[in-house]
Protein backbone atom coordinates (compact mmCIF):
# COMPACT_ATOMS: atom_id res chain seq x y z
CA UNK A 1 0.00 0.00 0.00
CA UNK A 2 1.18 3.45 -0.84
CA UNK A 3 2.04 5.79 2.05
CA UNK A 4 2.97 9.45 1.55
CA UNK A 5 6.34 10.54 2.93
CA UNK A 6 7.22 14.22 3.04
CA UNK A 7 10.91 13.63 2.40
CA UNK A 8 10.16 12.45 -1.16
CA UNK A 9 8.27 15.60 -2.10
CA UNK A 10 11.21 17.60 -0.73
CA UNK A 11 13.47 15.54 -2.96
CA UNK A 12 11.22 16.28 -5.95
CA UNK A 13 11.47 20.01 -5.16
CA UNK A 14 15.25 19.78 -5.19
CA UNK A 15 15.09 18.27 -8.67
CA UNK A 16 12.72 21.06 -9.74
CA UNK A 17 15.29 23.60 -8.52
CA UNK A 18 17.83 21.86 -10.71
CA UNK A 19 15.52 22.37 -13.70
CA UNK A 20 15.29 26.05 -12.76
CA UNK A 21 19.07 26.32 -12.61
CA UNK A 22 19.22 24.80 -16.08
CA UNK A 23 16.76 27.29 -17.58
CA UNK A 24 13.92 24.79 -17.83
CA UNK A 25 10.39 25.15 -16.47
CA UNK A 26 10.99 24.08 -12.85
CA UNK A 27 9.16 20.80 -12.48
CA UNK A 28 10.82 17.87 -10.76
CA UNK A 29 9.83 14.39 -9.73
CA UNK A 30 11.04 11.26 -7.99
CA UNK A 31 9.77 7.71 -8.37
CA UNK A 32 9.68 5.83 -5.07
CA UNK A 33 9.60 2.04 -4.76
CA UNK A 34 8.07 0.26 -1.76
CA UNK A 35 7.52 3.60 0.03
CA UNK A 36 11.24 3.82 0.74
CA UNK A 37 13.64 3.94 -2.19
CA UNK A 38 14.01 6.62 -4.82
CA UNK A 39 14.63 4.69 -8.04
CA UNK A 40 14.71 7.68 -10.40
CA UNK A 41 14.73 11.45 -10.46
CA UNK A 42 13.46 13.47 -13.41
CA UNK A 43 13.26 17.10 -14.34
CA UNK A 44 11.96 19.01 -17.33
CA UNK A 45 14.41 19.05 -20.24
CA UNK A 46 12.48 20.23 -23.35
CA UNK A 47 14.88 23.05 -24.18
CA UNK A 48 17.97 20.98 -23.68
CA UNK A 49 16.64 18.09 -25.78
CA UNK A 50 14.78 20.13 -28.43
CA UNK A 51 11.84 17.95 -27.56
CA UNK A 52 8.73 19.42 -25.95
CA UNK A 53 7.71 16.00 -24.64
CA UNK A 54 10.72 15.62 -22.34
CA UNK A 55 8.85 16.34 -19.13
CA UNK A 56 10.17 15.33 -15.71
CA UNK A 57 7.99 12.21 -15.57
CA UNK A 58 8.97 10.97 -19.03
CA UNK A 59 12.67 11.52 -18.28
CA UNK A 60 12.48 9.43 -15.11
CA UNK A 61 10.34 6.69 -16.67
CA UNK A 62 12.88 6.26 -19.46
CA UNK A 63 15.66 5.93 -16.89
CA UNK A 64 13.76 3.30 -14.93
CA UNK A 65 12.90 1.23 -18.00
CA UNK A 66 16.55 1.08 -19.04
CA UNK A 67 17.21 -1.20 -16.08
CA UNK A 68 13.80 -2.60 -15.17
CA UNK A 69 10.71 -4.27 -16.46
CA UNK A 70 7.40 -2.35 -16.33
CA UNK A 71 6.25 -4.56 -13.45
CA UNK A 72 8.37 -2.41 -11.14
CA UNK A 73 5.68 0.26 -11.28
CA UNK A 74 3.25 -2.03 -9.43
CA UNK A 75 5.04 -1.01 -6.22
CA UNK A 76 6.15 2.45 -7.30
CA UNK A 77 4.69 5.89 -6.56
CA UNK A 78 5.36 9.19 -8.24
CA UNK A 79 6.08 12.40 -6.33
CA UNK A 80 5.97 15.38 -8.67
CA UNK A 81 6.00 19.10 -7.87
CA UNK A 82 3.30 20.01 -10.41
CA UNK A 83 0.20 18.04 -11.41
CA UNK A 84 1.05 15.81 -14.38
CA UNK A 85 -0.01 17.26 -17.72
CA UNK A 86 -2.47 15.37 -19.95
CA UNK A 87 0.42 13.66 -21.75
CA UNK A 88 2.15 12.49 -18.59
CA UNK A 89 -1.16 11.56 -16.93
CA UNK A 90 -1.81 9.19 -19.81
CA UNK A 91 1.78 7.88 -19.78
CA UNK A 92 1.43 7.08 -16.06
CA UNK A 93 -1.68 4.98 -16.78
CA UNK A 94 0.18 3.11 -19.47
CA UNK A 95 3.18 2.22 -17.31
CA UNK A 96 0.84 1.20 -14.48
CA UNK A 97 1.94 3.61 -11.75
CA UNK A 98 0.64 2.74 -8.27
CA UNK A 99 -0.05 6.21 -6.85
CA UNK A 100 0.66 9.86 -7.70
CA UNK A 101 1.35 12.67 -5.21
CA UNK A 102 1.72 16.16 -6.64
CA UNK A 103 2.39 19.67 -5.40
CA UNK A 104 0.41 22.38 -7.17
CA UNK A 105 -2.35 21.95 -9.73
CA UNK A 106 -1.90 22.69 -13.41
CA UNK A 107 -4.81 24.80 -14.69
CA UNK A 108 -3.58 24.87 -18.24
CA UNK A 109 -2.68 21.25 -18.98
CA UNK A 110 -3.46 19.21 -15.89
CA UNK A 111 -4.50 15.64 -16.59
CA UNK A 112 -5.11 14.61 -12.97
CA UNK A 113 -8.23 16.66 -12.39
CA UNK A 114 -7.53 20.27 -13.38
CA UNK A 115 -8.40 20.09 -17.07
CA UNK A 116 -9.18 16.41 -17.63
CA UNK A 117 -9.46 13.36 -15.36
CA UNK A 118 -7.15 11.21 -17.44
CA UNK A 119 -5.90 9.40 -14.30
CA UNK A 120 -9.36 8.10 -13.39
CA UNK A 121 -11.45 8.09 -16.56
CA UNK A 122 -12.97 4.57 -16.69
CA UNK A 123 -13.43 4.84 -20.46
CA UNK A 124 -9.65 4.74 -20.89
CA UNK A 125 -9.40 1.41 -19.08
CA UNK A 126 -7.71 -1.33 -21.14
CA UNK A 127 -5.39 -4.21 -20.33
CA UNK A 128 -2.49 -1.79 -20.78
CA UNK A 129 -3.94 1.27 -19.13
CA UNK A 130 -5.07 1.41 -15.52
CA UNK A 131 -6.60 4.22 -13.51
CA UNK A 132 -4.51 5.31 -10.52
CA UNK A 133 -5.18 7.31 -7.36
CA UNK A 134 -3.80 10.84 -7.35
CA UNK A 135 -3.60 13.49 -4.63
CA UNK A 136 -2.37 17.05 -4.82
CA UNK A 137 -1.47 19.95 -2.56
CA UNK A 138 1.80 18.68 -1.04
CA UNK A 139 4.28 21.59 -0.73
CA UNK A 140 2.01 23.44 -3.11
CA UNK A 141 3.32 26.92 -2.22
CA UNK A 142 6.94 25.93 -2.75
CA UNK A 143 6.11 24.50 -6.17
CA UNK A 144 4.20 27.63 -7.21
CA UNK A 145 6.90 30.03 -6.02
CA UNK A 146 9.50 28.18 -8.05
CA UNK A 147 7.33 28.46 -11.17
CA UNK A 148 6.73 32.17 -10.55
CA UNK A 149 10.43 32.84 -10.12
CA UNK A 150 11.00 31.11 -13.43
CA UNK A 151 8.43 33.14 -15.35
CA UNK A 152 9.59 36.43 -13.86
CA UNK A 153 13.13 35.61 -14.97
CA UNK A 154 11.96 34.53 -18.43
CA UNK A 155 10.01 37.75 -18.98
CA UNK A 156 13.06 39.75 -17.98
CA UNK A 157 15.00 38.15 -20.80
CA UNK A 158 12.28 38.43 -23.42
CA UNK A 159 13.12 40.69 -26.40
CA UNK A 160 10.18 42.98 -25.55
CA UNK A 161 9.76 42.85 -21.77
CA UNK A 162 6.22 42.96 -20.51
CA UNK A 163 5.06 45.78 -18.27
CA UNK A 164 6.89 46.02 -14.99
CA UNK A 165 3.84 45.06 -12.97
CA UNK A 166 3.72 41.66 -14.64
CA UNK A 167 7.30 40.95 -13.62
CA UNK A 168 6.97 41.54 -9.93
CA UNK A 169 7.22 38.28 -8.06
CA UNK A 170 3.96 37.64 -6.30
CA UNK A 171 4.44 35.80 -3.07
CA UNK A 172 0.86 35.64 -1.88
CA UNK A 173 -0.77 32.44 -3.04
CA UNK A 174 -4.54 32.15 -2.94
CA UNK A 175 -5.99 28.92 -1.58
CA UNK A 176 -7.98 26.86 -4.02
CA UNK B 1 -11.07 21.29 -62.25
CA UNK B 2 -8.35 23.90 -62.37
CA UNK B 3 -5.06 23.32 -60.70
CA UNK B 4 -5.45 26.11 -58.19
CA UNK B 5 -9.09 25.71 -57.43
CA UNK B 6 -9.88 25.47 -53.73
CA UNK B 7 -11.81 22.32 -53.00
CA UNK B 8 -14.97 22.92 -50.97
CA UNK B 9 -15.28 21.16 -47.63
CA UNK B 10 -18.06 18.91 -48.90
CA UNK B 11 -15.70 17.38 -51.46
CA UNK B 12 -12.76 16.64 -49.19
CA UNK B 13 -12.00 12.91 -49.10
CA UNK B 14 -11.75 13.16 -45.27
CA UNK B 15 -13.63 15.02 -42.60
CA UNK B 16 -12.49 17.60 -40.13
CA UNK B 17 -12.87 16.62 -36.47
CA UNK B 18 -14.42 19.80 -35.16
CA UNK B 19 -14.76 21.02 -31.60
CA UNK B 20 -17.88 20.21 -29.60
CA UNK B 21 -18.98 23.81 -30.09
CA UNK B 22 -19.02 23.24 -33.82
CA UNK B 23 -20.88 19.95 -33.70
CA UNK B 24 -23.33 20.47 -30.87
CA UNK B 25 -27.05 20.10 -31.41
CA UNK B 26 -29.62 22.72 -30.63
CA UNK B 27 -29.69 23.85 -27.01
CA UNK B 28 -32.25 26.37 -25.93
CA UNK B 29 -32.86 29.02 -23.33
CA UNK B 30 -36.27 30.45 -22.46
CA UNK B 31 -37.18 34.07 -23.03
CA UNK B 32 -40.30 36.11 -22.44
CA UNK B 33 -41.87 37.45 -25.61
CA UNK B 34 -44.95 39.42 -26.51
CA UNK B 35 -46.86 39.85 -29.73
CA UNK B 36 -46.88 43.47 -30.80
CA UNK B 37 -48.92 45.53 -33.21
CA UNK B 38 -46.58 46.80 -35.95
CA UNK B 39 -47.32 50.43 -35.14
CA UNK B 40 -46.55 49.87 -31.43
CA UNK B 41 -43.24 48.12 -32.02
CA UNK B 42 -41.08 51.17 -31.53
CA UNK B 43 -42.79 52.10 -28.30
CA UNK B 44 -42.50 48.57 -26.84
CA UNK B 45 -38.86 48.30 -27.93
CA UNK B 46 -38.09 51.56 -26.19
CA UNK B 47 -39.68 50.25 -23.01
CA UNK B 48 -37.73 46.97 -23.22
CA UNK B 49 -34.42 48.74 -23.69
CA UNK B 50 -35.00 51.21 -20.91
CA UNK B 51 -36.82 49.23 -18.27
CA UNK B 52 -36.06 45.51 -18.65
CA UNK B 53 -32.85 43.54 -18.00
CA UNK B 54 -30.64 43.40 -21.11
CA UNK B 55 -30.19 40.13 -23.01
CA UNK B 56 -26.97 38.36 -22.20
CA UNK B 57 -25.14 36.18 -24.70
CA UNK B 58 -28.12 36.20 -27.02
CA UNK B 59 -26.71 38.66 -29.54
CA UNK B 60 -27.32 36.03 -32.22
CA UNK B 61 -31.10 36.19 -31.70
CA UNK B 62 -33.08 38.79 -33.60
CA UNK B 63 -35.12 40.93 -31.27
CA UNK B 64 -38.28 40.72 -33.39
CA UNK B 65 -39.73 37.76 -35.26
CA UNK B 66 -42.04 38.34 -38.17
CA UNK B 67 -44.47 35.54 -38.91
CA UNK B 68 -46.52 35.54 -42.08
CA UNK B 69 -50.12 34.52 -41.43
CA UNK B 70 -52.30 32.43 -43.78
CA UNK B 71 -54.23 35.56 -44.79
CA UNK B 72 -50.87 36.99 -45.93
CA UNK B 73 -50.89 39.45 -43.10
CA UNK B 74 -48.04 39.21 -40.67
CA UNK B 75 -47.53 39.14 -36.95
CA UNK B 76 -44.60 40.47 -34.92
CA UNK B 77 -43.23 38.83 -31.78
CA UNK B 78 -40.68 40.68 -29.70
CA UNK B 79 -38.25 39.35 -27.09
CA UNK B 80 -38.73 41.13 -23.77
CA UNK B 81 -35.98 39.54 -21.69
CA UNK B 82 -34.63 36.24 -20.46
CA UNK B 83 -36.82 34.12 -18.24
CA UNK B 84 -35.67 34.10 -14.60
CA UNK B 85 -34.03 37.52 -14.78
CA UNK B 86 -37.28 39.08 -13.63
CA UNK B 87 -40.79 37.89 -12.75
CA UNK B 88 -43.71 38.33 -15.14
CA UNK B 89 -45.52 40.34 -12.44
CA UNK B 90 -42.58 42.72 -12.26
CA UNK B 91 -42.56 43.14 -16.05
CA UNK B 92 -46.26 43.94 -16.03
CA UNK B 93 -45.84 46.37 -13.15
CA UNK B 94 -43.10 48.23 -15.01
CA UNK B 95 -45.25 48.18 -18.16
CA UNK B 96 -48.22 49.74 -16.39
CA UNK B 97 -45.94 52.38 -14.84
CA UNK B 98 -45.11 53.37 -18.41
CA UNK B 99 -48.71 53.14 -19.56
CA UNK B 100 -48.02 50.15 -21.83
CA UNK B 101 -49.98 47.52 -19.97
CA UNK B 102 -52.41 46.91 -22.83
CA UNK B 103 -49.66 46.34 -25.37
CA UNK B 104 -47.87 43.50 -23.56
CA UNK B 105 -49.04 39.89 -23.38
CA UNK B 106 -46.23 37.77 -21.98
CA UNK B 107 -45.52 34.28 -23.30
CA UNK B 108 -42.46 32.08 -22.74
CA UNK B 109 -40.64 30.59 -25.75
CA UNK B 110 -37.34 28.77 -26.24
CA UNK B 111 -34.63 30.33 -28.43
CA UNK B 112 -31.22 28.93 -29.50
CA UNK B 113 -28.80 29.31 -26.61
CA UNK B 114 -25.64 29.58 -28.73
CA UNK B 115 -24.70 31.44 -31.88
CA UNK B 116 -24.48 29.05 -34.85
CA UNK B 117 -20.87 28.47 -35.87
CA UNK B 118 -21.56 26.89 -39.23
CA UNK B 119 -24.24 26.52 -41.84
CA UNK B 120 -25.47 23.17 -40.53
CA UNK B 121 -26.21 24.62 -37.12
CA UNK B 122 -27.75 27.73 -38.65
CA UNK B 123 -30.09 25.75 -40.90
CA UNK B 124 -31.06 23.45 -38.07
CA UNK B 125 -31.71 26.13 -35.47
CA UNK B 126 -33.21 29.07 -37.35
CA UNK B 127 -36.73 27.64 -37.37
CA UNK B 128 -37.02 28.00 -33.63
CA UNK B 129 -36.28 31.71 -33.68
CA UNK B 130 -34.65 33.96 -36.29
CA UNK B 131 -30.91 34.06 -35.67
CA UNK B 132 -27.99 35.87 -37.20
CA UNK B 133 -25.24 33.98 -38.93
CA UNK B 134 -22.26 35.36 -40.73
CA UNK B 135 -20.45 32.58 -42.49
CA UNK B 136 -16.74 32.93 -41.90
CA UNK B 137 -14.66 30.74 -44.16
CA UNK B 138 -11.46 32.74 -43.75
CA UNK B 139 -10.13 30.25 -41.23
CA UNK B 140 -11.09 27.27 -43.37
CA UNK B 141 -8.24 25.14 -44.66
CA UNK B 142 -7.59 25.88 -48.33
CA UNK B 143 -6.95 22.56 -50.01
CA UNK B 144 -6.12 22.58 -53.71
CA UNK B 145 -6.18 19.44 -55.85
CA UNK B 146 -2.43 18.95 -55.41
CA UNK B 147 -2.77 19.25 -51.62
CA UNK B 148 -5.52 16.64 -51.58
CA UNK B 149 -3.37 14.28 -53.64
CA UNK B 150 -0.40 14.73 -51.30
CA UNK B 151 -2.57 14.21 -48.21
CA UNK B 152 -4.13 11.07 -49.64
CA UNK B 153 -0.73 9.68 -50.53
CA UNK B 154 0.69 10.27 -47.07
CA UNK B 155 -2.39 8.77 -45.45
CA UNK B 156 -2.17 5.73 -47.68
CA UNK B 157 1.52 5.35 -46.88
CA UNK B 158 1.15 5.46 -43.09
CA UNK B 159 -1.78 3.10 -43.27
CA UNK B 160 0.20 0.55 -45.25
CA UNK B 161 3.26 0.98 -43.03
CA UNK B 162 1.03 0.85 -39.97
CA UNK B 163 -0.79 -2.35 -40.77
CA UNK B 164 1.17 -4.29 -38.12
CA UNK B 165 1.45 -1.61 -35.47
CA UNK B 166 0.73 2.09 -35.75
CA UNK B 167 2.77 4.43 -37.90
CA UNK B 168 3.37 8.18 -37.95
CA UNK B 169 4.99 10.56 -40.41
CA UNK B 170 5.74 14.26 -39.96
CA UNK B 171 5.92 16.36 -43.11
CA UNK B 172 6.55 19.96 -43.98
CA UNK B 173 3.53 21.13 -45.98
CA UNK B 174 5.21 24.37 -47.01
CA UNK B 175 7.79 22.43 -48.93
CA UNK B 176 6.29 22.03 -52.41
CA UNK B 177 7.32 18.40 -52.46
CA UNK B 178 5.70 17.85 -49.10
CA UNK B 179 9.01 16.73 -47.67
CA UNK B 180 8.95 13.97 -45.08
CA UNK B 181 10.78 15.27 -42.01
CA UNK B 182 10.65 12.06 -39.97
CA UNK B 183 8.65 8.88 -39.63
CA UNK B 184 8.38 6.14 -37.07
CA UNK B 185 6.50 3.00 -36.13
CA UNK B 186 5.05 1.99 -32.81
CA UNK B 187 7.86 0.01 -31.14
CA UNK B 188 6.27 -0.91 -27.83
CA UNK B 189 6.68 -4.63 -28.26
CA UNK B 190 10.20 -4.58 -29.66
CA UNK B 191 11.64 -2.04 -27.24
CA UNK B 192 9.64 -3.28 -24.22
CA UNK B 193 8.70 0.28 -23.48
CA UNK B 194 5.00 1.04 -23.08
CA UNK B 195 5.42 4.66 -24.16
CA UNK B 196 7.13 4.06 -27.48
CA UNK B 197 4.06 4.90 -29.52
CA UNK B 198 4.48 5.93 -33.15
CA UNK B 199 3.76 9.61 -32.46
CA UNK B 200 6.21 9.81 -29.54
CA UNK B 201 8.88 8.06 -31.59
CA UNK B 202 8.25 10.42 -34.49
CA UNK B 203 8.58 13.55 -32.32
CA UNK B 204 11.80 12.06 -30.90
CA UNK B 205 13.09 11.56 -34.42
CA UNK B 206 12.47 15.23 -35.27
CA UNK B 207 14.39 16.25 -32.14
CA UNK B 208 17.28 13.95 -33.04
CA UNK B 209 17.45 15.48 -36.52
CA UNK B 210 17.48 18.95 -35.04
CA UNK B 211 20.36 18.03 -32.75
CA UNK B 212 22.32 16.62 -35.68
CA UNK B 213 21.51 19.72 -37.69
CA UNK B 214 22.92 21.89 -34.94
CA UNK B 215 25.96 19.69 -34.61
CA UNK B 216 25.03 18.55 -31.16
CA UNK B 217 25.86 14.98 -30.40
CA UNK B 218 22.87 12.90 -29.53
CA UNK B 219 22.71 12.46 -25.79
CA UNK B 220 25.20 15.22 -25.28
CA UNK B 221 24.40 18.48 -23.66
CA UNK B 222 24.03 21.47 -25.90
CA UNK B 223 25.48 24.77 -24.83
CA UNK B 224 22.75 27.34 -24.69
CA UNK B 225 22.39 30.88 -23.64
CA UNK B 226 19.45 32.29 -21.78
CA UNK B 227 18.51 34.40 -24.81
CA UNK B 228 18.31 31.35 -26.99
CA UNK B 229 15.69 29.55 -24.98
CA UNK B 230 13.71 32.59 -24.08
CA UNK B 231 13.10 33.75 -27.63
CA UNK B 232 9.68 35.14 -28.32
CA UNK B 233 6.93 33.01 -29.78
CA UNK B 234 7.35 31.21 -33.08
CA UNK B 235 5.69 34.05 -35.00
CA UNK B 236 8.62 36.24 -34.05
CA UNK B 237 10.78 34.44 -36.58
CA UNK B 238 12.95 31.90 -34.85
CA UNK B 239 11.16 28.96 -33.34
CA UNK B 240 11.40 28.38 -29.64
CA UNK B 241 13.75 25.46 -29.48
CA UNK B 242 11.33 22.89 -28.13
CA UNK B 243 8.47 23.78 -30.46
CA UNK B 244 10.04 21.88 -33.27
CA UNK B 245 6.86 20.80 -35.02
CA UNK B 246 5.51 24.32 -35.56
CA UNK B 247 3.85 24.42 -38.96
CA UNK B 248 4.33 20.73 -39.67
CA UNK B 249 1.65 18.16 -40.43
CA UNK B 250 1.56 14.68 -38.96
CA UNK B 251 -0.02 11.67 -40.64
CA UNK B 252 -0.95 8.79 -38.36
CA UNK B 253 -2.42 5.39 -39.18
CA UNK B 254 -4.63 5.47 -36.08
CA UNK B 255 -6.27 8.01 -33.84
CA UNK B 256 -3.74 8.86 -31.09
CA UNK B 257 -4.13 8.29 -27.34
CA UNK B 258 -4.18 11.13 -24.78
CA UNK B 259 -0.41 11.01 -24.34
CA UNK B 260 0.30 11.34 -28.06
CA UNK B 261 -2.45 13.91 -28.67
CA UNK B 262 -1.03 16.09 -25.89
CA UNK B 263 2.55 15.52 -27.05
CA UNK B 264 1.43 17.10 -30.34
CA UNK B 265 0.00 20.09 -28.45
CA UNK B 266 3.34 20.52 -26.62
CA UNK B 267 5.23 20.24 -29.91
CA UNK B 268 2.97 22.81 -31.63
CA UNK B 269 2.02 20.58 -34.55
CA UNK B 270 0.03 22.36 -37.24
CA UNK B 271 -2.39 19.71 -38.51
CA UNK B 272 -3.11 16.05 -37.83
CA UNK B 273 -4.43 13.59 -40.38
CA UNK B 274 -5.32 10.12 -39.21
CA UNK B 275 -6.90 7.16 -40.82
CA UNK B 276 -8.69 4.97 -38.28
CA UNK B 277 -10.45 5.98 -35.06
CA UNK B 278 -9.59 3.97 -31.93
CA UNK B 279 -11.66 3.00 -28.89
CA UNK B 280 -9.65 5.17 -26.52
CA UNK B 281 -8.65 7.79 -29.07
CA UNK B 282 -8.42 11.39 -27.93
CA UNK B 283 -8.83 13.31 -31.18
CA UNK B 284 -12.54 12.77 -31.65
CA UNK B 285 -13.56 9.51 -30.01
CA UNK B 286 -13.31 10.14 -26.24
CA UNK B 287 -11.78 13.59 -26.15
CA UNK B 288 -11.03 16.42 -28.54
CA UNK B 289 -7.73 17.40 -27.03
CA UNK B 290 -6.86 19.46 -30.12
CA UNK B 291 -9.68 21.93 -29.57
CA UNK B 292 -9.98 22.16 -25.80
CA UNK B 293 -10.37 25.78 -24.75
CA UNK B 294 -7.95 25.71 -21.82
CA UNK B 295 -4.97 24.38 -23.78
CA UNK B 296 -2.54 26.97 -25.09
CA UNK B 297 -2.18 25.55 -28.58
CA UNK B 298 -4.85 24.18 -30.88
CA UNK B 299 -4.40 22.20 -34.03
CA UNK B 300 -6.76 21.01 -36.73
CA UNK B 301 -7.59 17.36 -37.08
CA UNK B 302 -8.79 15.47 -40.13
CA UNK B 303 -10.01 11.90 -40.14
CA UNK B 304 -10.15 9.62 -43.13
CA UNK B 305 -12.51 6.92 -41.98
CA UNK B 306 -15.76 7.46 -40.15
CA UNK B 307 -16.11 6.04 -36.65
CA UNK B 308 -18.98 3.74 -37.48
CA UNK B 309 -17.24 1.90 -40.28
CA UNK B 310 -14.06 1.12 -38.38
CA UNK B 311 -14.94 0.92 -34.71
CA UNK B 312 -17.12 -2.09 -35.36
CA UNK B 313 -14.71 -4.84 -36.31
CA UNK B 314 -12.01 -4.10 -38.82
CA UNK B 315 -8.93 -6.27 -38.76
CA UNK B 316 -6.79 -3.35 -37.70
CA UNK B 317 -8.67 -2.61 -34.52
CA UNK B 318 -8.64 -6.30 -33.71
CA UNK B 319 -4.89 -6.56 -34.17
CA UNK B 320 -4.34 -3.56 -31.97
CA UNK B 321 -7.00 -4.28 -29.40
CA UNK B 322 -5.95 -3.93 -25.81
CA UNK B 323 -3.67 -1.02 -26.51
CA UNK B 324 -4.67 2.32 -25.18
CA UNK B 325 -4.99 4.38 -28.30
CA UNK B 326 -1.91 4.72 -30.40
ZN1 LIG C 1 3.87 16.30 -18.67
ZN1 LIG D 1 -0.21 7.15 -28.06
TrEMBL record, chain A:
Catalytic activities: adenosine(34) in tRNA + H2O + H(+) = inosine(34) in tRNA + NH4(+)
UniProt GO MF annotations: tRNA-specific adenosine-34 deaminase activity; zinc ion binding
UniProt GO cellular component terms: cytoplasm; nucleus; tRNA-specific adenosine-34 deaminase complex
GO biological process: tRNA wobble adenosine to inosine editing
Domain of life: Eukaryota
Cofactor: Zn(2+)
Keywords, comma-separated and alphabetical: Hydrolase, Metal-binding, tRNA processing, Zinc
Pfam families, per the entry: dCMP_cyt_deam_1
InterPro entries registered for this protein in UniProt: APOBEC/CMP_deaminase_Zn-bd, CMP_dCMP_dom, Cytidine_deaminase-like
Keyword Metal-binding: yes
EC number: 3.5.4.33
Domain CMP/dCMP-type deaminase: 3-131
Record family assignment: Belongs to the cytidine and deoxycytidylate deaminase family. ADAT2 subfamily.
Protein name: tRNA(adenine(34)) deaminase
Automatic annotation (TrEMBL), chain B:
Annotated family: Belongs to the cytidine and deoxycytidylate deaminase family. ADAT3 subfamily.
Domain CMP/dCMP-type deaminase: 175-302
GO biological process: tRNA processing
One Pfam family cited in the UniProt record for this chain: dCMP_cyt_deam_1
Superkingdom in the source lineage: Eukaryota
Compositionally skewed regions (Low complexity) per UniProt: 307-326
Any GO CC annotation of this UniProt entry: cytoplasm
GO MF, any single term: tRNA-specific adenosine-34 deaminase activity
InterPro entries: CMP_dCMP_dom (IPR002125), Cytidine_deaminase-like (IPR016193)
Keyword tRNA processing: yes
Chain positions covered by the region annotation Disordered: 214-233, 306-326
Keywords assigned by UniProt, alphabetized: tRNA processing
Name the record gives this protein: Cytidine deaminase-like protein
Organism: Phascolomyces articulosus
Amino acid sequence: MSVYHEQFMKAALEVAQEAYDNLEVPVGCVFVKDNETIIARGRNRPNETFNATRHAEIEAIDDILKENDTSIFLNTDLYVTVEPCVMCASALRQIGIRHVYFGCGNDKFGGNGSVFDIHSDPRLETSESKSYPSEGGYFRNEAILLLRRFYVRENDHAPAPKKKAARILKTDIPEN
Amino acid sequence: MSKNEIIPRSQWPFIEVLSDEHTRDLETVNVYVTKVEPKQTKQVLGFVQKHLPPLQNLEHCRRVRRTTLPDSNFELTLILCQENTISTEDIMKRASDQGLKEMIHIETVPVPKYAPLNRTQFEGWKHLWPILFREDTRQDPKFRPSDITAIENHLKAVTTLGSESAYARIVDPTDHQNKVIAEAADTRSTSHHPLHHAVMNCIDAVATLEKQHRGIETGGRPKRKVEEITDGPAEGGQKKTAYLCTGYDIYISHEPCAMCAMALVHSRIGRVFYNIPTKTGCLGTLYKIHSHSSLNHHYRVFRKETSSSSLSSTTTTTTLSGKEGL
